[in-house]
Amino acid sequence: MTRTSAPPPTALYGAVLAGIGVALGAFGAHGLKTVLTPDLLATFETGVRYQMYHGLGLLALGALPNQRRAPLFLLAGTVVFSGSLYLLSLSGVKWLGAITPIGGVLQLIGWGLAALDARPRQ
């Protein structure tokens, strides 16, 4: 008997990312508007925007079969991409921006895998 692993809780990942994205968006709009420079606030908002995109994308992928590989890449990519932008915005440490593209690459890999796994089986 072969044992298959359970699929990742894709919709759960998406719901958590989206929920935290709403909270961080409100925090940025109300709590950081007078604290951060306009450039740093825009950087923070970019992190929130991409977190929401990927949260909603993961919710959608949760409804599709065979999505075992993409969710973890999308989750990790979002944590790295958005997380580095949040840290950069709040700390002002510019070298954190060098980490952001790593998250973007993980997200691109995730979407590529999602497309491959969504292909019709023959």
UniProtKB/TrEMBL annotation:
Q: Which residues cross the membrane?
A: 12-30, 50-65, 72-89, 95-116
Tell me where it resides: Membrane
Q: Which InterPro entries match?
A: DUF423 (IPR006696)
Which keywords appear in this protein's UniProt record, sorted alphabetically? Membrane, Transmembrane, Transmembrane helix
Main subcellular localisation: membrane
Q: How the protein sits in the membrane?
A: Multi-pass membrane protein
The entry's family comment says:
Belongs to the UPF0382 family.
Protein name, please? DUF423 domain-containing protein
The species is: Deinococcus sonorensis
